[in-house]
Amino acid sequence: MNAGRSLPPVALALIGIGTGNPDHLTRQAVAAMNAADLILLPHKGEDKAELAALRQALCDAVLVAPAPRIAGFDMPVRRSAGDDYLVQVDEWHAAIARCWQDAIAGATDSPAPEAVLRVALLVWGDPALYDSTLRIAARMQPAPVRVEVVAGITSVQALAAAHAVPLNDIGQPFVVTTGRQLREQGWPAGVDTAVVMLDGQCSFEALAPEGLHIWWGAYLGMPQQLLDSGPLAEAGPRIAHTRAAARAQHGWIMDIYLLRRAAQPVSAV
């Protein structure tokens, strides 16, 4: 934390902003953004400057005068060597909480104002699904006097809508998982449908493709949206190629896919 600066009492609003399309902002999200005194925007390096620009564009589209202050902060990079995954994530979350605190202290006019400072963070998708913003907020010192969550459209919803497919078969469950889990654990037990997020390695390539269908989407809801679908054996190589080219072009990629295997025949009794 900045030396000699104390955090004011903070009310934290975690606002789901969908997948980058201003039309994904709910009226509640727009109201919460305009009610803030301060909006924190992360910077993730030059190769991801477009992401920061997207958040700024959302602010430009919906904020009205007198607009909240906007403060940027440099997002820490999670190390990938040594210890196990959970240790790395825990260390990373602690570093992010400190960055939030520094940014808030740096944007505060006086050392310790008595009024509660309303701070907003814009969260891709929804804060409740494969996002750690709530966990990071719990690590702030001092703790926020209150935390408000504004629900957002998730990439899961955007993917199903873009392909016009239901997420589940009639009366059947589905699993939302990660690329790392798919690589390490294989096909999830007990389901025929899996939605895979946070996959930077095309983990579907580790599966036997027979009987599997994939629906894939990247930059969902944005002008550069990419979609592909088909039997995994045919669509998988196309998707891997398209994904690599898009990441090289933009410097970043956010993508998600749905996998469904053919229903298994029921054995006669």
From TrEMBL:
It comes from Acidovorax soli. The keyword Transmembrane does not apply. GO terms for biological process: cobalamin biosynthetic process; methylation. Residues 12-235 form the Tetrapyrrole methylase domain. Coiled coil: none annotated. One of its GO terms (molecular function) is precorrin-6A synthase (deacetylating) activity. This is Precorrin-6A synthase. It comes from the Bacteria.
